[in-house]
Sequence to fold (310 residues):
Amino acid sequence: MSYRLLTYQSGREARVGILVEEQVYDPAGIVGNAAYTSVLAILQDWRTARTGLALAAERIIAGKSRAKGVPVRRVKLLAPVLYPGNIYCAGANYTDHMIEMARAHGREPGPTAKERGEKPWHFIKASRSTVVGPGVKVKIPPYSRMMDWEVELAAVIGRTAKDVPVEKALDCIAGYTIANDLSARDAGRRDKTPETSPFYMDWLGHKSFDGSCPLGPWITPAGDIPDPQKLGLKLWVNGEPMQDSHTSKMIFSTAEQIAMLSARVTLSPGDLVLTGTPAGVGMPRKRFLAPGDSVKLWIEGIGEMTHTMA
Fold:
């Protein structure tokens, strides 16, 4: 581990921190750039910042720095990116999840979108109202009785990207964090609208309610995760294992998703790409989150994050 990039609470303010060996340091101080006042500010200067932060971390680890840190256990972590520009979320992007959801709806699984010659598919979550950090209580919206969990690897964009080829797409990523793409399953369809109507789906109520994107606990630099398709990921509800899969089961890889998105829209530093969830969600087993439930998420190479429902 070299370092992790995070945001934490200091009084009434949010502050950026760099985590090195369980201590949180001020990036502006250890790098000598007063502009590094937030994670977004660092991401907007990522090509330069990543080198400076890595060198500063090396000095700290080697005992060659006089910088004073605060134990991470003493700080209240917030969502690492306050607040992302755009949040792009992949739908039906794991082979095992596609199979379980098809059967949950009474259908036999067919070929994947990739096998049919389709491109990756994404929807958008709102940013400021949906993003919350570790340890928070997420209020279940009053219109939902079918609140579901979805652990996802989230790629944090670190440079402006337009029409990027697949082979260069990972170069656009500053790092990775963990997201829970909370889903109100009973709010995804408008029952009084014909299924054939283009207005049948309600993506706002289904995926973009307040607090629907718990994020954290920090950003692991992309240099520490050379291949995002080689990571285990898990989720527990009240200590019971629910999701246990691997990013190698993605239908469209992280690079393929970024390449396609950049062909449609310009990606900017601070944007997030949630890359999809594997099997193990609540819908197929008709089990959903209730007030008081605790949700723990883990992704290899990043760490773990916990939040509760209210």
Summary: The chain has two domains: 4-77, 87-309. The mean pLDDT is 94. The chain is about 20% helix and 30% strand. Residues 46-61 form the longest helix (16 residues).
